[in-house]
Amino acid sequence: MPKFTEVRDFPYSKDQMYKMVADVDAYPEFLPWCQGVRTYKHTGGSLQADLVIGFKMFRERFTSHVTFTDDRIEVDYIKGPLKYLHNHWQFIENKDGGCHVDFLVDFEFKNKIFEKMIGGFFTEAVSHMIGAFEKRADELYGG
């Protein structure tokens, strides 16, 4: 069960960073391995999302429930190739106008073969994904 946490400071505002992460429909434009997305069941502060993730021979669809609160985005697994997945982003405004971002992802595959294949690659993949969000923020907000 891989678990990864990352804490970073960005020169962009809490609102800018939150808006970028909350734009799930844009993920295929910049996230590595995200081949498609469909969002639906949009309600007050949540939605459901199907993401198609592909890498080499691996291609899977994940369905998640995404909840939006003032300074946090929570992602909880509904169905797909995992036993469970929990992901959160927390956004804290810095005194200088920038934003402190706390990221966590924790999951376990149902299939132990996938677990072994992805296990060694997991930290690198998540770090690469965080880098893609950072690059996207620079593109959108001018860093």
From TrEMBL:
Pfam families: Polyketide_cyc (PF03364)
InterPro entries xrefs: COQ10-like, COQ10_START, START-like_dom_sf
Coiled-coil regions listed in the entry: none
GO function terms (MF aspect): ubiquinone binding
Annotated GO CC locations: mitochondrion
Biological process, per Gene Ontology: cellular respiration
Domain Coenzyme Q-binding protein COQ10 START: 11-134
PANTHER family associated with the record: COENZYME Q-BINDING PROTEIN COQ10, MITOCHONDRIAL, SPERM PROTEIN HOMOLOG
Protein name according to UniProt: Ribosome association toxin RatA
Organism, as annotated: hydrothermal vent metagenome
Lineage: unclassified sequences, metagenomes, ecological metagenomes
